[in-house]
Amino acid sequence: MHVLTIVPLLLVFLSAPAATLRAQNPQVRPGTLRGQVIDPSGASVPNASVKLTNPNAEISTRTTDANGAFEIANLQPGNYNLAVSVTGFATKEQTLQITAGQILQLAVSLDVATQQQEITVAEVAPTVDTSPSNNAGAVEMSGNDLQALSDDPDQLQADLQALAGSGGPDGTQAQIFIDGFSGGTLPPKSSIREIKINQNPFSAEYDQMGFGRIEILTKPGTDTLHGRFAVQGNSSSFNTGSPYVAAGNQEPYHSVIYDGSISGAFHHVASFSLIAFRRNINDSAIVNAIVLDPSFNPVSFNAGVGIPQEMTTLNPRLDYQITRDNTLTARYQYTGTTRSNVGVGGFALPSQADDFRQKEHNLQLIDSQIIGERTVNEIRFQYIHLENTQSGLNSAPSIRVTGAFTGGGSSRGVTLNQNNNYELQNNTSVISGPHIFKFGGRLRASDWVSDSTNNFNGVFTFPSITAYQLTEQGFAQGLTMAQIRANGGGPNQFTIATGLPRVKTDLVDLGVYVQDDWKVRPNVTLSAGFRFETQNHIPDHSDPAPRVGIAWSFGKKARPTVVRTGFGMFYNRFPVNNVLQLDRFNGLNQQQYFVTNPDFYPTIPAAGTLSGALTSPSVYSIAPDFRSGYYMQGALTIEQQLNKISNLSLNFFRTRGVHRAILSNVNAPLPGSITAANPTGTRPFPNEGNNYQYISASDYTGYYSYAALNIRAGAKLTLTGNYGVGWARANAVPGNGGFSSNPYNLNQDWGRAGGEVRQNLFLSGTFALPYQFRLSPLIFVQSGSAFSITTGQDINGDGIFNDRPGFVTSQTLPQNIVVTPYGTFDKAPTPGQNIIPIDSVRGPARATVNLRLGRTFNLSKAPNGAAPAAGGAPIPGLPAPTTSAAFGPRVYTLTFNLDARNIFNKINRGNPVSNLSSPLFGEFNSLAGGPYTTGAAVRRVDLQLVFAF
Fold first, then answer.
1. pLDDT of residue 903
2. What is the bridge-based pairing of β-strands 78-85 and 49-53?
3. What is the DSSP letter of 156?
């Protein structure tokens, strides 16, 4: 492990005093009240109602922003009564004294309310203000709003990723944080208190853009005993099967989910919750391939292959009040997952099946302290222990026929991974006059032990189904490989890995930050921050990231307009999978051999005999001048309060990415050196093989704008909508691990960014219907995503099959001309010929309308005026003492839900086959997957029954 240099950071903010507000009485300066509202675990409580009453019974009201903060100015000296309330918590009241010119800061800790299962923060009307974390374009879901989302954790994650839009540049998925931690498995929906998406895009506290951040906050325990048990099921008779598999080959989709929880209090110092979750699914993979029949004729192969899946989750949580101002939260989650027949589908035949097993243990500890009236400090620690196994069910050599099928054994072999992941955070928030300072840091460390026999069985690659057909026919006729090649048959590539299966590595990264949100004026907030990041295993150890933002509010008090603008730098960390790859294929631990036109098919010789002019070991390396790629993002947002229950925001972003990591073969054959006389070409380093090197050479430019509408009309109606339009260009394949198509000309890959989706729309909400029914829609619509047409051949000899065709010229040979609905192409372009642009084609648009219809029946009601539980006075911030009275009369409910996904039965297709060498080129042969479909079902209907008390 490289030694990290921890650089102390000091950022000093010098500011002139804010302009003095004009008081109603010129002889007496008014005061100001500023505060932050938190829950028993120390987490901020947004959208809480704050009421301040003066001796004349005049009331001033505010709503807390996303950080739980509020401010009430122009207060005449005197005594006031403060009341803070939000659904799910007990109202907190206290008396205050404001003196002339005083700025009083305080932290308000709420207790969990009695007899309350759901925290329905969404019922508070949305408001716009200049708080940097209260951007109106954000999505906040809690209480009834969560009902629109799936109860299946995998489907829930797909829903959230879709709600977050692309999440960031290049269509990368948004990051998910659970109670402030990264890297964990999504908890059951029943344990989630609130979900926040796309908040505070320029906060220095975040390593990545807030625009691509999904925050999940879990529920604390309750003050009296509560329980919940749910069962949800799906039968194939309720579903519409895939159109890409014959009815007789359809593997039915069905599922069952069990979800139970119990929560309560330990005396007057702690509350607890315990959630158990079990899911069984039989999904299906659809295989559409071209194979040979017993007479060696190409025929279609179509089948549905069952993919049974099981998931078990156990999730206890304890909230313990150490002192009045100090709370400790401990949360543990065990997740066990099994999947069978992984790796099958598309061109991959059933013989490619793997079995997958994983166990994850996740422990989180959060210590929250209120220090005086102005400071809140949180120390967070997370430990994750992860074990997973993936085992191929067939160890024979793999046979990959480009554009037709992948058969034989699974090239994945047996993989065993063990990982210990540690994360330590400290975050401090200080209110000081017109400033709210935040500072802290995050240290993450992980150690990995990975055993893998990936590709130890070898892979033979054939350029086409015709070449494979001629090979099998030739062997049946007793021909030699030389004769078969003369007829146009034989594999064109063979790869195999040998050496030590086990590698060990570690990964450490550190980020520290300081942030100041300065209330320059009552209607102007200036935010400035600085973040510094570093990590091991790369040459770059110094990554500074400044952030700045300003928000200005104007207009009518009841219907204000807020204009925001900001800028920030955000770095991409080099992930552990890349480090494992570098350690595994460093030329010492494992050797990966690459053989052009092997003549030993179907027999694999011993690895020690793989030598000669056509054979070379491949390695992975990192460039000596490699540096962390980063994005520079600027934004302009206009937010308008439409009325007391709704707001609208218009958001415009520009993103520029530089030094992005890609893979390039720096020892690929020189352009034009591959000829019939020299089929392997001439390399810059003739005595070495392929050197796949991580380089910092990819650029990105993107624009994205979206309009967001939020409506909150109490429990009767909530509605959140978002429509976005994006445009992006990049060179080379996006993200860590993508290969360039031409190592000697990266600009050949300049064009649409991979996976670019031009338009996105989502709509989510909940409606109260007559007879106490509730309807929760969730709608996703997107335009087609960009993808590339490839030749299916390794024309330039770099070992990667991502070469694109060229435009037809007068020199194009007739046998190389391919006429398609997308244009006429040359499938064998020569060096210097114009190549079609990357990601030049768009797939089909996709849309789904999901609806959940439910009704809750009260089986009993608690009597009015029930006596409170006996016991001593509770400590503020914790449930009241639990006695036998807590087990007396209570409310019992029974809820029925019908959850229909893709109710209009729209066939959401995956992208068509884009390999020109495939007989199926241009055809659709798969469904899009989540959040639009499963692998086997176009439309799906689930029934759920929930009993709660």
1. 95
2. antiparallel
3. H
Domain annotation covers residue 599: no
d(CA 710, CA 604): 63
Q: How far does CA 763 lie from the centroid of its chain?
A: 19
Sheet holding 78-85, edge to edge: 59-63, 49-53, 78-85, 92-98
Among the listed residues 132, 154, 259, the one whose alpha carbon sits nearest the alpha carbon of residue 199:
132
SS3 assignment, position 377: strand
Q: How far apart are CA 808 and CA 829, in angstroms?
A: 9
Instruction: Please determine, for residue 780, whether its predicted confidence score (pLDDT) is greater than 90.
Output: yes
Q: How many domains does the chain have?
A: 2
Alpha helices in 409-522 (DSSP H): 465-476, 481-486
Pairing status of strand 435-452 against strand 398-401 = unpaired
Cα separation of 234 and 281, whole Å?
9
Could you tell me how far CA 909 lies from the centroid of its own chain?
22
85 and 39 in a single domain? The answer is yes
Q: How, if at all, do strands 846-860 and 773-782 pair? A: antiparallel
Q: What is the pLDDT of residue 925?
A: 87
Query: 179 lies in which domain range?
Result: 139-218
Return the H-helix or E-strand segment holding 306.
strand 298-323
Q: Which of 819, 753, 817 is nearest to 787 (CA)?
A: 753
603 in a domain, yes or no? no
Provide the CB-side half-sphere exposure for 258 (13 A, CA). 8
Question: Of 196, 218, 240, which residue is a domain's last?
Answer: 218
Three-state DSSP state, 474: helix
Q: Where residue 66 sits, what CATH number does that domain have?
A: 2.60.40.1120
Cα angle 701, 706, 711 (rounded to 5 degrees) comes to 155
Whether residue 61 is contained in a domain is answered as yes
For the chain, the distance separating the N- and C-terminal CA atoms, rounded to the nearest angstrom, is: 52
| Mean pLDDT rounded to a whole number for the chain | 85
Any bridge partners for residue 948, and if so which?
228, 893
Question: What distance in Å separates the CA atoms of residue 54 and residue 72, rounded to the nearest whole number?
Answer: 12
Strand partners, 945: 231, 896
In a domain, 512, yes or no: no
Q: Is the dihedral of CA 576, 578, 579, 581 positive or negative?
A: positive
pLDDT for residue 891 is more than 60? yes
| Residue pLDDT, tens place only, 184-227 | 889 999 999 889 887 778 899 999 877 778 899 998 888 788 99
Confidence of residue 873 (pLDDT cuts 50, 70, 90): very low
Residues β-bridged to residue 906: none
Mean pLDDT throughout 25-32? Answer: 55
pTM: 0.83
Whether residue 160 is found in the same domain as residue 206: yes
- Please say which residue of 173, 190, 218 terminates a domain: 218
Calculate the alpha carbon distances from 380 to 125, 178, 369 in Å: 32, 12, 12
Strand order in the sheet with 31-38: 69-75, 31-38, 103-109
For 377, other C-beta atoms within 10 Å of its C-beta total 17
Q: Inform me whether the pLDDT recorded for 24 exceeds 50.
A: no
Cβ neighbourhood burial of 97 (10 Å; 0-12, 13-18, 19+): exposed
**DSSP annotation string for 207-265:** SS-GGGEEEEEE----SS-EEEEEEEEE-GGGSEE-TTS-GGGPPPPEEEEEEEEEEEE
Q: Which residues contact 745 (CB under 8 A, 6 or more apart)?
A: none
Query: Strand locations in 49-202, DSSP E?
Result: 49-53, 59-63, 69-75, 78-85, 92-98, 103-109, 139-142, 175-178, 181-182, 192-197
Please list, in sequence order, all residues whose beta carbon lies within 8 angstroms of the beta carbon of residue 526, skipping any fewer than 6 positions away: 517, 518, 520, 549, 550
Q: Enter the DSSP assignment of 927.
A: B
- CB within 8 Å of 622: residues ≥ 6 apart: 538, 539, 582, 693, 694
- Amino acid at the residue 371: I
Confidence of residue 870 (pLDDT cuts 50, 70, 90): very low
Taking the CB of residue 494, how many other CB atoms lie within 10 A of it?
24
**Is residue 690 within 8 Å of 616, Cβ to Cβ?**
yes
- Who contacts 611 (Cβ-Cβ below 8 Å, separation ≥6)? none
State yes or no: pLDDT of 738 exceeds 50: yes
